[in-house]
Amino acid sequence: MEILSSGHEQVVFCSDAESGLRAVIAVHSTALGPALGGTRFYPYASEEAAVADALRLSAAMSYKNSLAGLDLGGGKAVIIGDPATDKTEALLRAYGRFVEALGGRYLTACDVGTYNADLDVVARETRFAHGRSEAYGGCGDSSVLTAYGVFLGMQAAAQHCWGSRSLAGRTVAVAGAGKVGSHLIGHLVDDGADVVVTDVDPAAVERVQGATRR
């Protein structure tokens, strides 16, 4: 694993035998402020694959936050496991303690496999968990805004390429029908696009087909 040559400020390996937690927190840059990035809960094939994803995603967050004009750096965390079977309160709280131990260098939120309710649990152990439920003063489901932002970007690209923002009659492929993808697909269908959807989980494709079927 080429961690030392990745340019990251800090990479933390988290392990808690009692809860079964195995996680990696990658802080790419705090040049502009605390490193912000979500927590991905995914059944990686190996620890090496998990580390590679954390390094890649955290670096991307540095650039994303900078381009957005935010006083925030870039970070990301990954929890190794299947969220459908391995996610427990004890595991999430153990993870929260690791986040707290970084003293605010890393601010976490939702990502693939984690939801507002999960961050509510993480927040029982740390002051640095965002993306919480509205009932706890959080922003709620941020994937709604993420999907809409992607849709507006696609419309802008269509305007540039074809002279019209409308995607009606265009064929659009969406890889992933999860939190962001499902909302994006809805916007595309409403705009008249023909949408091709793929996902590693066939049930996710079936859900969006049912939601968008007219």
Automatic annotation (TrEMBL):
InterPro entries in UniProt: Aminoacid_DH-like_N_sf, Glu/Leu/Phe/Val/Trp_DH, Glu/Leu/Phe/Val/Trp_DH_C, Glu/Leu/Phe/Val/Trp_DH_dimer, Glu/Leu/Phe/Val_DH_AS, Glu/Phe/Leu/Val/Trp_DH_bac/arc, NAD(P)-bd_dom_sf
Keywords recorded for this protein, A-Z: NAD, Oxidoreductase
Domain spans labelled Glutamate/phenylalanine/leucine/valine/L-tryptophan dehydrogenase dimerisation: 8-127
Ranges where the Glutamate/phenylalanine/leucine/valine/L-tryptophan dehydrogenase C-terminal domain occurs: 137-196
Coiled coil: none
Pfam families found in the cross-reference section: ELFV_dehydrog (PF00208), ELFV_dehydrog_N (PF02812)
Family: Belongs to the Glu/Leu/Phe/Val dehydrogenases family.
The protein's name: Glu/Leu/Phe/Val dehydrogenase dimerization domain-containing protein
Species annotation: Blastococcus brunescens
Phylogenetic classification of the source organism: Bacteria, Bacillati, Actinomycetota, Actinomycetes, Geodermatophilales
